[in-house]
Amino acid sequence: MKNDMLKGNPVKSIIMFALPIMASALLQYSYNLVDNIIVGRYISEEALAAVGSIGPINSFIIGTALGLTSGFTIPVSHRFGAGDKKKMNLYAGSSITLSAIVGITIVIIAHIVSNPILRLIKTPSNIIDLSSEYVNILYFGVPLQMLFNNFTSISRAVGDSKKPTVFIVISVLTNLVLDILFVGVLELGVEGAAAATVISYGVAAVLSGIYVMKRQPELDIKKNDLKPNLRISWEQLKLGIPVSLQFTITSIGSMILQSAINSFGSTAVASITAASRVEQITNIPMSGLGVGNSTFVAQNYGAENYKRIIESVRKILILDLIISLICSAILIFAGPYVVRLFIENPSAEIMDYANQYLFTIGGCYCLVSLLFVFRNTLQGLGFTYANTIAGAGELLGRMLVAYLLTPVFGFAGVCFAGPAAWLLADIPLIILYLRVKKQKLLQ
């Protein structure tokens, strides 16, 4: 069912659109959640650390891929808002072809660079082989993830955020059943967990592809729309590359930080892995509203409804700030209990590390709300270079922590990496939004 964002109450439209996105994000997050819980409980603490240690590398490669698809579909929203169905279908078809080509290219590169990166970030010797086994199977799912993310972005671009959630539910259930079968019953270890995830991505990609190509009422993508068009492809790449660079640059900072975390040993890696999963859950409401606002902004920018854009940004920012305070309380008071789900009988050392991390980021969580609002707003307007600038700010924040705070304050310094990254990303985003608002929206 399509959600009309071009009229009516902006905040209500965004919230109704964002709720399925939040549900989808929670379900997609459960891929890693299920893997981590089953690996941590059925295999070992070292196996959990191995899966967690590849997080920054995973973000570097998969985040880079998915960032591209987010940029590819921005013109679809703009053309939908402008009522130009022909070009909308052309951009949608081009994004599908681009996603497939780029996905296959990335999976080849990923297998070449993953093992050297694991060694570069000083992955502990007792988990490096497990990490390699896990990640080198997982990357076969990159093209499938890209296609699924692209199909989902196309649906959202035309106002449909509900149907993709159904496909994710089926995919997550597939992942859960296969995880239990491969890891718990067949005892295939971390390789079984990775294979379960790849198969689940395939299920999601096939179902969402059939829907977008055959059943989505707003779309009528023909075979000719799928043919590579250099002009359109280049236009989409120019929008996708800055978004992708944001993930790339941020992930480089995370890998630098991961190297610092790895120096504390596999116990610290396991604790950060578990605690960061709790953080990712609390990210979902603000992230969902950010994506919803991005689509709202893109459609109304295409329709030249500039006042609605300004109103939505102001009100969503207030709402996100309120949500961030609630999330802070959850991280500080409930987070430690959630950490125990990942590790059976966690040691006092693991819990001390996890609590320190959760308490630190919980006290600075309002900075995340600013990041999601302004980054997604600028992306919806087509100013995707803002993502790259924000990514550079996050990289700088994590580098400062890794090289300056951690040597002095130890693990306590690691905990301030997130807040430092958010702050240094927020400042340029706010300045850019105010400039764009003055130049483009206040006309």
Structural notes for this entry:
- This protein has 443 residues and is an all-alpha fold.
- The chain has 18 helices and no strands.
- The chain has helices at residues 10-42, 45-53, 55-72, 74-82, 85-120, 128-138, 142-157, 163-185, 189-215, 223-226, 230-262, 266-302, 306-339, 348-362, 366-380, 385-409, 411-415, 417-441.
- Helix 3 (55-72) runs parallel beside helix 7 (142-157), helix 4 runs parallel beside helix 12 and helix 13 packs across helix 15.
- The longest helix is centred in the middle third of the chain and has 37 residues, at 266-302.
- The protein starts with 9 loop residues before the first helix and ends with a helix.
Q: What descriptors fit this protein?
A:
443 residues; mainly alpha; 85% helix; globular
Q: Helicity range of the residues? A: over 70%
The share of residues in extended strands comes to: under 5%
Radius of gyration: 21 Å
Order of helices and strands: HHHHHHHHHHHHHHHHHH
Total strands: the figure is 0
Largest sheet entry: none
Distance between the termini: 33 Å
Mean pLDDT: 83
User: Total helix count?
Assistant: 18
Morphology: globular
- The low-confidence parts are none
Structural class: mainly alpha
